[in-house]
Amino acid sequence: MTMKTSFVFVLLSSLAVAPSSSECFDKSTYYAIDHDIEAIASGIDNEDDLVHFYGGIVRLVAHDFMDYDRNSDTPMGTDGCIDWGHEVNLGLWGSIWCDDCDLTKLYNDKYSQLSKADFWVAAANAVVRNLSVDKTLDMVDTFLWGRKDADSCPGQGDRVPTGSGCREIEDVFLDAMGLNWRDAVALLGAHTIGKAHADFSGHDGYWMPTAVDSLVFDKQYYEELVRRPWRAHNIGAKEEDFIASTEMTHKEPQLMLKTDMCLWFDTDNYYPCCSRSNRFFNGQNWCDWEEKLSDSECTRYDTDNSRMEAVKTVVEFLGGPRPNENNGPFYKSFASAWFKATTNGHDNLKAVSSKCW
């Protein structure tokens, strides 16, 4: 994801000093990484670039752990190895991880004693903490280290989901990674930060209404999913998705992938559709803005469908009757799911020490 403006790398003299040995990873190192990520971000004055920086770090780790397959002789998982040239990973190399990228420079200059995999996870943890409400989602106590980097990972990109629907969630998150629906719904909540770029995924827009909203890690993703009128978009194209915006209501497009929408609607089997056919704007049905979809309302799941576990989890993550600021259920489940996803396939990982001597 090419940046509109270059990130300004913070001088190393202003950053915390990390220990020089990989025999120990203590809390001072963990929070030094956290501080350094925040320091780099403070030098980015363009909101779109800042969303990309933060969201790109989380995406980097997600693409590293979503290739885990417990049923394979080569399980992969968080191993610091990405197939940069695969279409599903486009945008990671060149703006998040590259010779001239701030995150890579930070690693090479200060933290190369760690594996890339450990550093990436710690950096993503820093993003989550810094963007969570009042910085309350601190995952230091569940962070483990000791991952080994892989020199190569053939086929890595083929295992990463593309956003086509809940069959991918079942194949990747449930069957291959061994997670459950609660874990999957929690991890997808990370879409509350970041942005899709047409040049890389074919999708374009924020999951949130604005760039500012996309700089807060909270439960708004689920609120947007349930309450916005979403209409099918890019119908018939490889990049089928949903959109809730118009050029008159949003500065930037607001989207949901089919993988997002299927947490609430049966969009795998009933597409194209519109989620709320009773919404109007300037006298026009919202569902008919680009194509007539007011007669194709999105279908909810039958009560005996296994995907109702996702629906029930979304309801829980909403935090109660609207309006409320209860991020607790989401934060707790996200931390649990993130721990499982980032430790899958690893033995003998260690907790961070109070202090390295």
Distance from N terminus to C terminus (CA atoms, Å) equals 40 Å
Classify the helix fraction into a percent range: 25-40%
Mean pLDDT: 93
Could you list the spans in which at least 5 consecutive residues all have pLDDT below 50?
1-21
Task: Note down, in words, how this protein is organized.
The protein is mainly alpha-helical and 357 residues long. 34% of the residues lie in helices and 6% in strands. The protein has eleven helices and nine strands. The strands form four sheets. It has a three-stranded antiparallel β-sheet with strand order 4-5-6. A two-stranded antiparallel ribbon has the order 1-9. Strand 7 and strand 8 form a beta hairpin.
Briefly, what is this?
By secondary structure, the protein is mostly helical.
Q: What brief labels describe this structure?
A:
357 residues, mainly alpha, three-stranded antiparallel sheet, two-stranded antiparallel sheet, 11 helices, 9 strands, 6% strand, disordered N terminus
Write the layout of secondary structure elements.
Layout: H1 27-42, H2 47-65, H3 102-111, H4 116-131, E1 144-145, H5 156-159, H6 166-176, H7 181-188, E2 195-196, E3 205-206, H8 220-227, E4 231-233, E5 241-243, E6 255-257, H9 258-261, E7 280-281, E8 284-285, H10 308-317, H11 328-343, E9 350-351
Antiparallel strand pairs: 1-9, 2-3, 4-5, 5-6, 7-8
